[in-house]
Amino acid sequence: MKLMVPVQQLWQRASSREQRLLSVAAIVVALGLLWWLGVAPALKVIKAAPGQQLALDAQLQTMKQLQTQAKDLRAQAPLTAGDARAALEQSIKSLGAGAQMVVQAERVTVTLTDVAPDLLAQWLAAARQNARMAPKEAHLKRNGKGGWDGALVLQLPGAN
C-alpha cells in the first residue's frame, strides 16, 4: 500500500499525454508478458507435437512387434536340454570354422575366432529362436580384421 501512494501522486502530476503514453507502455508490457508466459510456450508445444507423434508411433510399432514376438515364444512348446543342444549344434555350423562348441553339464561354451559381426548376429538370433538359448556370459573383443574373438557361455533349458 505504501508503494501505491507515490505512484498515484506521480500519475496525478503527469500530463494527459504522459498518462496516455504510460498506459500504452503498460499495455505493451502486459501483452509482452502474456505472450512470453502464455502463448509462446503453447505454440512451441504445438510445433513439436507432430515430430513427437511420429516418434511415439514408431516406438509403439516396435513395442507391438516385441509383444508379438514374446507371444510367439511363449506359445512354443518347451525344449528338452537334448533338443536345445542339437539345435545349437546345427546352428553353430553357420558360423563356419571360426566357432567351436564345448558342453559341460548344463553350460555350453562357444569359442569364436574371427567371426564376422553379421554372422554372429544372425547366429545369436537363430540360437534364441531355435534352441531357445541366450548368452549368460559374453567375453568378446574385436580383432584387427573386424571380426569377433572370444567366448559365449549359454545355459541349456531346464537348468538353473
Secondary-structure element string: HHHEEHEE
Tell me the strand percentage band: 15-25%
- The number of helical segments is 4
| Largest sheet descriptor | 4 strands, antiparallel
Helix content: 55-70%
**Pairing-aware structural class of the strands and helices?**
alpha+beta
Please list the strands of the largest sheet in the order they lie side by side.
1-2-4-3
Describe the structure.
The protein is α+β, with helices and mostly antiparallel strands and 160 residues long. It is 60% helix and 19% strand. Strands 1-2-4-3 form a four-stranded antiparallel beta sheet, covered by helices on one side. A hairpin with a 5-residue loop joins strand 3 and strand 4. Helix 3 (81-92) runs antiparallel to helix 4. The longest helix has 60 residues, at 16-75. The radius of gyration is 35 Å and the shape is rod-shaped.
In short:
The protein is α+β, with helices and mostly antiparallel strands and 160 residues long. Helix content is 60%, strand content 19%. It is built from four helices and four strands; from the N terminus they run αααββαββ.
Write the layout of secondary structure elements.
Layout lengths: L3 H10 L2 H60 L5 H12 L6 E6 L2 E9 L1 H14 L4 E8 L5 E8 L5
Antiparallel strand pairs: 1-2, 2-4, 3-4
Offer a few descriptive terms.
160 residues, alpha+beta, four-stranded antiparallel sheet, 4 helices, 4 strands, 60% helix, 19% strand, rod-shaped
